[in-house]
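User: I'm curious whether this sequence folds into something compact or stays loose and floppy. Could you predict its structure so I can see for myself?
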Amino acid sequence: MTTHPSIEQHPDLAEMRSRFERATSTPRGQAIETLGLLTGLYLAASPWIAGFSGLTALAVCNLITGVAYALCMGGFGSAYERTHAMAWAACAIGAWTIISPWVVAGNVDTTRSVVNNVIVGAVALLLGLAMAAAAMDDRRTGRTRARGGPGPAMQ
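Assistant: Here's the prediction. I'll summarize afterward.
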């Protein structure tokens, strides 16, 4: 009977984990994660902070999308290898935040709600793109090193 080693011991898996660990341990990765978490928390609380909590449909929408965004962006540091694809979901949440005052049912497109959501949505979208770019940069660096060539830092 043949025994197969566990996938956990595969050298490619160990290299991938160390590469993802390097990406999240950089000051850039930590800053993006922290700003993303704060953006999500602000988005969730923004109806009460900016003063449009009376517009219940948009308030509930911001609460749900803010919590979802904070969970997406907050998971990068602890489990980057399993959550780096969620950067694109964070981008979608940012885009939704921008358009939601005009899409959500009811008359919720007041000046406060529009300005708040456009600014927070743009920040959320940019942070999601920054995290996605960090994942792509890390993949590109890993592929270059896997082929035997120097990484960007060595060139």
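Summary: Residues 4 and 90 are 38 Å apart (CA to CA). The radius of gyration is 19 Å.
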